[in-house]
């Protein structure tokens, strides 16, 4: 379970000229907050200014694709890249599988529709402990805060590939 980050990046990217949107679900708030903070921290290290990071919330992960589209097309068309962040933890019903698959496919299709990069910031974990580890808040056994990876990926994708 020792999964770590993006691996070696091909170069250092300067995010000083990009605008980033973060849209996050409110479910599993402690984990979400750690992931959002990790993404913002990493983007700032790569030069993204605080005023160029816009953060909005939605009720849950299922709402992330629609909110991301409205956010990018209507509310903030100047945004270069968006990071939808959600945490899904498996329960005793099929709900987890349906939401995970639906949101994953919708976000993948959305980036082709809006012609801008969308970073996949959806944790799909079997347990709360797995989610906490991936958010870097698992009391002494910290694996890695994936929010940092998402922030780095957002800067790289916006700088390197931009919008069509």
From TrEMBL:
Pfam family, one: DMRL_synthase
Example GO BP: riboflavin biosynthetic process
CDD domains to which the protein is assigned, alphabetical: Lumazine_synthase-I (cd09209)
The reaction(s) this protein catalyses: (2S)-2-hydroxy-3-oxobutyl phosphate + 5-amino-6-(D-ribitylamino)uracil = 6,7-dimethyl-8-(1-D-ribityl)lumazine + phosphate + 2 H2O + H(+)
Alphabetically ordered keywords of this record: Riboflavin biosynthesis, Transferase
Annotated Gene Ontology cellular component terms: mitochondrial intermembrane space; riboflavin synthase complex
KW Transferase (keyword) present: yes
Presence of the UniProt keyword GTP-binding in the record: no
Transmembrane spans: none
EC number: 2.5.1.78
Pathway participation: Cofactor biosynthesis; riboflavin biosynthesis; riboflavin from 2-hydroxy-3-oxobutyl phosphate and 5-amino-6-(D-ribitylamino)uracil: step 1/2
Example of a GO MF term: 6,7-dimethyl-8-ribityllumazine synthase activity
InterPro entries according to UniProt: LS, LS/RS, LS/RS_sf
Subunit relationships: Homopentamer.
Family membership: Belongs to the DMRL synthase family.
Function: Catalyzes the formation of 6,7-dimethyl-8-ribityllumazine by condensation of 5-amino-6-(D-ribitylamino)uracil with 3,4-dihydroxy-2-butanone 4-phosphate. This is the penultimate step in the biosynthesis of riboflavin.
Protein name listed in UniProt: 6,7-dimethyl-8-ribityllumazine synthase
Organism: Hanseniaspora osmophila
């Amino acid at each position: 379970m020792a999964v770590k980050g993006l691996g070696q990046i091909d170069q250092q990217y300067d995010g000083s000229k990009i605008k980033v949107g973060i849209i996050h679900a409110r479910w599993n708030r402690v984990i979400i907050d750690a992931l959002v903070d990790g993404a913002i921290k990493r983007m700032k290290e790569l030069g993204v200014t605080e005023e160029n990071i816009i953060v909005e919330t939605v009720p849950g992960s299922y709402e992330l694709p629609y909110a991301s589209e409205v956010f990018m097309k209507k509310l903030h068309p100047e945004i270069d890249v968006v990071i939808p962040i959600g945490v899904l933890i498996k329960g005793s019903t099929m709900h987890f599988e349906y939401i995970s698959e639906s949101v994953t496919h919708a976000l993948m299709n959305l980036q082709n529709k809006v012609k801008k990069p969308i970073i996949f910031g959806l944790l799909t974990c079997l347990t709360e402990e797995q989610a906490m580890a991936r958010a870097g808040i698992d009391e002494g056994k910290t694996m890695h805060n994936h929010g940092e990876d998402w922030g780095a990926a957002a800067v790289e994708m916006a700088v390197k590939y931009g919008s069509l």
